[in-house]
From TrEMBL:
Species name: Actinobacillus delphinicola
PANTHER family (alphabetical): TRANSCRIPTION ELONGATION FACTOR GREA, TRANSCRIPTION ELONGATION FACTOR GREB
Domain Transcription elongation factor GreA/GreB C-terminal: 82-156
Protein name: Transcription elongation factor GreB
Keyword set, alphabetical order: DNA-binding, Elongation factor, Protein biosynthesis, Transcription, Transcription regulation
Example GO biological process: regulation of DNA-templated transcription elongation
Pfam families: GreA_GreB, GreA_GreB_N
PROSITE patterns from the UniProt entry: GREAB_1
Known function: Necessary for efficient RNA polymerase transcription elongation past template-encoded arresting sites. The arresting sites in DNA have the property of trapping a certain fraction of elongating RNA polymerases that pass through, resulting in locked ternary complexes. Cleavage of the nascent transcript by cleavage factors such as GreA or GreB allows the resumption of elongation from the new 3'terminus. GreA releases sequences of 2 to 3 nucleotides.
InterPro entries according to UniProt: GreA/GreB_C_sf, TF_GreA/GreB_CS, Tscrpt_elong_fac_GreA/B, Tscrpt_elong_fac_GreA/B_C, Tscrpt_elong_fac_GreA/B_fam, Tscrpt_elong_fac_GreA/B_N, Tscrpt_elong_fac_GreA/B_N_sf, Tscrpt_elong_fac_GreB
Domain Transcription elongation factor GreA/GreB N-terminal stretches: 6-75
Family: Belongs to the GreA/GreB family. GreB subfamily.
Amino acid sequence: MAKSDYITRAGWNALDQELKYLWKEERPLITRSVSEAAAQGDRSENAEYIYGKRRLREIDRRVRFLSKRLEALKIVDYHPNQEGKVFFGAWVELEDEHGQINQYRIVGGDEFDPSKNWISIDSPVARALIGKEIDAEIQVNTPKGLTTFYINKIWYDKT
């Protein structure tokens, strides 16, 4: 499944900050250390030189990716018309058939973070939630089989 090009404003800002940090701070620092290591002579056994060159390749690869990705992403801001329904950026409190309650935020694939309970808009749960209202019942095919969830609460970060 293709990754959606949607992102929250905060998510876009975080990727933009990472790009600026890599390009303006870390890359020049690593370039200087590689130049200093190269000046020491034999490069074939110079761990600092080898590591530095490898890190520069990693930085350049990430910079290229971020540059292209930031151009393709579409920032989705909160709009008052979203109130009462689940859309991109929503926080949703779900209760399963066993009474287990979890809260999730629907975000873009570039910013999902299970440790923060942020789920991708491309996930089966998020897809089932889009457009639903409080007290709606959804069914999602999970690794444990078909699971029913009830929407207890919907809210948005309005920043």
